[in-house]
Amino acid sequence: MTANKNMQSRLSACLRTVAVILPFAAVGAASAAEPLSYFTWAGYDDPAFRKPFTDKYGASGVVYSFYSGTDEAYTKLSGGYTADVAHPCIHDIKKWQAAGLLKPIDPSKVAAWNDILPALRDASSVVIDGKHWMVPWEWGASSVIYRTDKVKPAGETYAILTDPAYKQRTALPDAFDEIYQLSAVLAGIKKPLALDEGDYAKVEEKMRALRDNARFIWTDPGQLEQAIASGEVDVAWGWPSSLASLKRQSIPVDFMLKPKEKLVTWECGIGILATAKAPEAEIYDFINALTAPESGKALVEKFAYGHSNAKALASVDPKLLAELGLDGDADAMIKGGNLLGPMPDAQRQRLVEMWSLIKAGG
């Protein structure tokens, strides 16, 4: 009898121990799940851009890997690199989709879908075969940044980058699509994404003029910002994020928002990769966190880029929007500029080879 009681007592104790351990084991299993993987540029791991996701999945709920440009990303993904989501731009979508790198977007799972700027959401380069292949996230214009204490342009024009007065005082990005679009608009080409044979020589001439005037070609915005701040260069092709960074340092700079050639505009966003292993619900939670108004407000204030959510733009200080040139009709600005986009493969390959040769000094 006593032996039975002792056995029952030990059994009860074991059961109580198991009851205590099991909840902790369950928590451990949940926290040990693979985090969502995001393939993007450096800097986009800012926690302010994903707070709703972090609130639900924790700070370790996403792991980041970085590339220097989307051409590099395409090469790595085509070579077998895997992730759940990536950060392509409008000129990448057709190429990535054709290569089988992307899954189509389900608009019904994107909470902010109806608030996304139509010019971004429904751009022909984003919608293929009746399906959306990217959720737009940020947009903006690339343009000329210049030191206002050293440069007094007679008017706003991209031709300042080829002006002999600033020889060895300019800088260009190592970003093919932007350099090409810049060269094409300087050459007066009306349809940069569909060249005629006679246009190639005009583009080559402008590419060489841009290179010959440049002190260096930058690969990191920080490199450009340091050169402008130190006085190494006075004029450069750059992004709004660099304008914002330099102004925070009290460097006297301005950004051409009304060039006679019209702005070179772009949009980038979130693509779901074909290799995605994370649960679909988790992926859309991440997308919804990035496209939430609070995330968009942080993007505008930190990077000086436009956000795809109209409600996010409406939440930003109007004075800041005006300073960044984002206070007008965003749809009109995007459509009215020289929007980057895909071009025929043969044209792109020929132009990439042209710029690579020129960039190398050929």
Report the count of strand segments. Answer: 14
Proportion of beta-strand residues:
15-25%
Q: Indicate the low-confidence ranges by residue numbers.
A: 1-32
CATH architecture of the largest domain: 3-Layer(aba) Sandwich
Mean pLDDT: 89
**What is CATH's topology name of the largest domain?**
D-Maltodextrin-Binding Protein, domain 2
Helix-strand sequence = HEHEHEHEHEEEEHHEHEHEEHHEHHHEH
Shape: globular
End-to-end separation: 98 Å
Chain oligomer state: single chain
Number of domains: 2
Structural overview:
The protein is α/β, with parallel strands linked by helices and 362 residues long. The chain folds into 2 domains: 36-138 and 266-327, D-Maltodextrin-Binding Protein, domain 2 (3-Layer(aba) Sandwich), CATH 3.40.190.10; 140-264 and 342-359, D-Maltodextrin-Binding Protein, domain 2. Helices cover 43% and strands 17% of the residues. It has helices at 2-31, 51-57, 70-78, 93-98, 118-121, 176-186, 199-213, 221-230, 240-248, 280-290, 293-303, 310-314, 318-324, 330-336, 345-359, and strands at 36-40, 62-66, 85-86, 102-103, 127-128, 131-132, 135-147, 170-173, 214-218, 235-238, 253-255, 264-273, 306-307, 338-339. Strands 1, 2, 3, 4, 7, 8, 9, 10, 11, 12, 13 and 14 form a 12-stranded mixed beta sheet that branches. A two-stranded antiparallel sheet has the order 5-6. A hairpin with a 2-residue loop joins strand 5 and strand 6 (131-132). The protein is globular. Mean pLDDT is 89; it is low at 1-32.
